[in-house]
Amino acid sequence: DQQVKQNSPSLSVQEGRISILNCDYTNSMFDYFLWYKKYPAEGPTFLISISSIKDKNEDGRFTVFLNKSAKHLSLHIVPSQPGDSAVYFCAAPSSGGSTLGRLYFGRGTQLTVWP
Amino acid sequence: ETGVTQTPRHLVMGMTNKKSLKCEQHLGHNAMYWYKQSAKKPLELMFVYNFKEQTENNSVPSRFSPECPNSSHLFLHLHTLQPEDSALYLCASSQDTAGLYGYTFGSGTRLTVV
Question: Chain A: nearest CA to B17, how far in angstroms?
Fold first, then answer.
């Protein structure tokens, strides 16, 4: 079962504009969320994270927003640059039990930033 | 350099071959993982090792056999694979299995089974 969902497989944005990538989750026990970025033929790399005690975390051009009541988070990239073109994965770690240590990933969203 | 090194980067093997994928990390992490990424599918967790002990086998067929001789090295032994096993195999490590600090991934091995 997909506990972390990214319903948009792709997003196309013009350079300089804002990119908004969305992620929904079903497990209310999740208390920490991460975004990963993946280029072709490479492994995912950590981008930004947010704890459930916050509703916003900002790092340069990247901001993650968390809406716990809606079980929704989003990654904003502004301004978008062609080098941001990659697949973005939303992820959440299991909070305990037999699956402690598992990082649940969404299916990813392919972002394309065009000039 | 991500700190997690996977070899080989690319591998083509026949269905009757035996091969091994290697993963190495020198980050001082305690946990290591094998993930599979097939086209148009989410990342699939295969195995979890914590302090060299396998703590999770996510219903992976026996034609995939992991080995973790120490906390810095992880292998995935492959034998009698099927064409549908062709995928990108990713190794990752983390400081702890709670995953709170995220994973560091290797660049992956692109496996093609012919």
Answer: 24
